[in-house]
Amino acid sequence: VAPTTPVCEVPSSAMTGTVVQMSCKETEGSPPSEYQWYKNGVALLEKTGTGSVRAANVTYTMNKKSGTLLFNTVTKNDTGEYFCEASNGIGLPQKCSVKRMQV
């Protein structure tokens, strides 16, 4: 079953230095969808752990299975327009509407 349009939760504003979690979910897709987050139209890289992440100046962890995008400490650089895309290899990937977060 192809995925439906996912529901994205993106805070409209966040204080610098706080923890921010964004979520993306759709329930119709079978097999379960994987989720890809985009910022300003550019796909975010999947990063797990903290080793090489700091070096790359990346402050988030993206989980493609659960659809969460977690920022340990947001900075002004994280301000932007976010959306996520659900895909499971069947039909076309579905995107939620773009939401802007201001830090």
What do you see in this structure?
- This protein has one domain: Immunoglobulin-like (Sandwich).
- Helix content is 5%, strand content 37%.
- It has 1 helix and 9 strands, in the order E-E-E-E-H-E-E-E-E-E.
- The strands form 2 sheets. Strands 3, 4, 7, 8 and 9 form a 5-stranded antiparallel beta sheet that branches. A 4-stranded antiparallel beta sheet has the order 1-2-6-5, with no helix packed on it.
- The chain starts with 6 loop residues before the first strand and ends with a strand.
- The mean pLDDT is 90.
Task: Draw up the topology in text.
Layout: E1 7-9, E2 20-25, E3 34-39, E4 42-43, H1 51-55, E5 60-63, E6 68-71, E7 80-87, E8 94-95, E9 99-101
Antiparallel strand pairs: 1-2, 2-6, 3-4, 3-7, 5-6, 7-8, 7-9
Descriptors for this entry?
103 residues, 9 strands, tight junction, transmembrane helix, Immunoglobulin-like, mainly beta
In short:
The protein has one helix spanning 51-55, and strands spanning 7-9, 20-25, 34-39, 42-43, 60-63, 68-71, 80-87, 94-95, 99-101.
Q: Supply the number of helical segments.
A: 1
- What does the overall shape look like? elongated
Proper CATH architecture = Sandwich
- Within CATH, the superfamily carries the name Immunoglobulins
**Main sheet attributes: strand count, strand direction, barrel closure:** 5 strands, antiparallel
Structural class: mainly beta
Q: Which CATH class is shown?
A: Mainly Beta
Q: What count of structural domains? A: 1
CATH topology, by name, is Immunoglobulin-like
Low-confidence stretches: none
Into which percentage range does the β-strand content fall? Answer: 35-45%
Number of strands: 9
Radius of gyration: 14 Å
- Helices and strands, in order, run as EEEEHEEEEE
Q: Considering DSSP H and I runs of 4 or more, what fraction of the residues is helical?
A: under 10%
Give average pLDDT, whole number: 90
End-to-end Cα distance, whole Å, is 37 Å
